[in-house]
Amino acid sequence: MLSLYRNAFGGLSRQVWLLALVMLINRSGTMVIAFLTLYLTQKLHFSIIDAGFVMVIYGIGSICGTFSGGKLTDKIGYYPVQLWSLFLGGIVFLMLVHVQNYYLFCALVFFLSALGEAYRPANTASIADFSTPETFTRSVSLIRLAINIGWSIGPAIGGFLASRDYTLLFWADGLTNIGAAILVFSFLRTTRRPKTDSQAIKPIINPKDSAFRDRKYLFFLLLTTMYAIAFFQLFTIGPLFYKQVCQLSEIQIGYILGLNGLGVALIEMVLVYKIEGKFEKLYLISFGVALVVINYIIFLFTHNYAWLIVGIIFATFSEIFAMPFMNAFSIERSKPHNRGQYSGLHAMTWSVAQISAPLVGTQTIAYFGFDALWYILGSFGLISAFGFIWLKRI
Question: For the chain, how long is the longest CA-to-CA vector?
């Protein structure tokens, strides 16, 4: 077993490990988003529809952030984009803790999301720069490992903090963002790969290289968006369902969400190492997407805490099988001079989901109840799963 883990983590560059460390520090503070709907309804006493629109604003900001982040990455490089998105995002977190006005809160949430999501395409481009084609998927998985260790720590601590004072979540997120920015400034600015003579010559860009002309990739993005909408509800509407319907405490909610991150942290790297290259990526993605549907079936039939844990385990394996290979598929279709654009569009699918998920979720719950939402999300998951199979066959 130790040999298996050593082989799974072996051969990755020092720079990728540094990126993973930055991500671990950053995501250990991922508390506010997991509890934002609860904060808005329980602490600020906004209605559930108002809370849903705040999440919509967050999603709009993330679309602007990922698109501009991809453009800026291609123009000025991934280092400054990562540095300033982390640092300024931390400042906005510290500002939000003092805001109770609904419209000002929406405005700051927009800037927070735009700054935070600009980090993603820059991070993906930097992983590609410091990896070989053979190690890229495992490098992505290492970053995701850091994300999920942080995610397992963050909500668990967040549930503890929220049970005492919701404003502590904003302080924790703000300070960890600033800490991650300091780490980027201290280490990654001196580890950027020097350009070779061939890279120093600006390539002639063919308009046909645009990701917007890649029809197969655009269809891939549509399917990814549908999956992302289904998956995101676990972390936006899920906490509300756990609290209002299942009557769980904030600490129990934190444990469930943290279990997802812990499961990915323990399993993903080894599983990717064992199956990479043995199966078609789109088939693995399809299998992973289908697994999230099981979680919503469980939501429909039981509110028992043990079964909710079983559901999050299926959602965890959904993430493990789907997301690393989605990233790999995206990068494989790009070229060095348009990698930021491809990465930005892929990140935008999750941003679109951040808009659609709370909007669909809160409106459906308000008018039809939670069960209707689980039917809708299950249908999204199934359509997406079969779509990825069809995409492979064409």
Answer: 62
Candidates 113, 147, 124; CA nearest to 342 is: 124
How far apart are alpha carbons 41 and 66 in whole angstroms? 28
Q: Helix H segments across 102-166? A: 102-129, 136-162
C-alpha 360/C-alpha 375 separation (Å) is 12
Collect all residues with Cβ–Cβ distance below 8 Å to 141 and sequence separation of at least 6.
268, 269, 272, 324
Which pTM does this prediction carry? 0.66
Closest CA to 342 of 234, 257, 216: 216
pLDDT in tens, 167-221: 888 888 888 888 888 888 877 665 554 444 444 444 445 556 666 777 888 899 9
Tens of pLDDT, residue by residue over 304-349, are 889 999 999 999 899 888 888 887 787 777 776 666 677 777 777 8
Cβ burial 313-342 (10 Å sphere, 16+ → b, else e): bbbbbbbbbbbbbbbbbbbebbeeebbbbb
